[in-house]
Structure formats: C-alpha cells, structure tokens
Amino acid sequence: xxxxxxxxxxxxxxxxxxxxITQEHAIVFARTFVGLVLLAAGVxxxxxxxxxxxxxxxxxxxxEITVPxxxxxxxxxxxxxxxxxxxxILVGWLALAxxxxxxxxGSAVAINxxxxxxxxxxxxFWPQPNHHLxxxxxxxxAGLAGLAxxxxxxxxLVDRVGQLPIVxxxxxxxxxGAVLASLLLWGMIxxxxxQPEGAQ
Length: 200
Fold this sequence. Notes:
disordered N terminus; disordered C terminus
C-alpha cells in the first residue's frame, strides 16, 4: 500500500518535472524562432535597402512621401526586435512588436491579392522579383504572428529560462535555427523546382 502511494507520488513528480522542462524549452524555442525569422528578414532587406524601398512603393499602400522612410525603417525595426528577442530583452513588448510586424506584412499581402495584384515582389526576405504574392504568404505571416503571441503569453514565465543549463539553452536555440534553416531551404527548393526550364 505504502509502496503504491510512493510510486504514485514519484510518478506525479516526474510528470511535473517533464512539464516544467518542456515549458522552459518551449519558451526558448519560440523566442529564438521568431527572433531568427525577423533577423534573417531584416538583415536581408538591409543588404538591399534600395530594392526594398521599391518593394514598399510597389505595394501602393502608403503616400509616396512616406515610402522612403518606411522602406528604410522597417528592416531596422525587424533587426532590433529580433536582437531583443534573441537576447531576452523586453521580451513581452518585443513579442507584441513582432505580432504587429507579422500582421502588417500579412495584411499588406492580402490587400494586394484582393486587388488582383499577384505579380509583384513580396519583399519577405531578399527583395527579388520572382517572390510573388500568394495566400500562402498570408497564412505564413498569420502563423508567425500566432507564435509571437505565444511568446508574449509565456513571457511571465521567462525568468524560469535562467534555470536552464547553458548547454540546454544553446542546444534549444540551435534546434530552432536548424528548423528555420530547413524551412527556408525547403522553400528555396520548391521555388527552383517550379521555375520553367532555362529560368535564372
């Protein structure tokens, strides 16, 4: 009888331990994934800033006078939000900023799709003319916004992340980076596969 109670207590403690570890790793993973997405997008746009200003102009959503400022500011904002999330600085506020960015991008794509303007560059990462608008981009941004919301919701638990050993923290961040890299590579393969023969 006593052995059964002991085993039951041990089982409950183990379940609580597993839930705690999963929760802590989920915090690191989600924050890192969102941060890396924004960092990759921001750095790519900053590397071709003039082209990205042209992309913003081509969306036809802003008064012309504001286009140069917005086109230059957005990549910088993405990079700042990303760095803050990756280093765990002001996570709650920056997660909300990330939600706003993803919803902004998704809404801009959706508005142009509803206007029938599909054959323009999305400017998602590198501003290339063959990155056309699709409803898949809207869905992707909605999913990223949802992930950023989850980061905001679990932000009150972020202090627990400090309890993770540095090796586990780095490993979890590495896994998030590997997942993102795999998704980007898969998207690149799909785009190349869909190109007509002889296309550059």
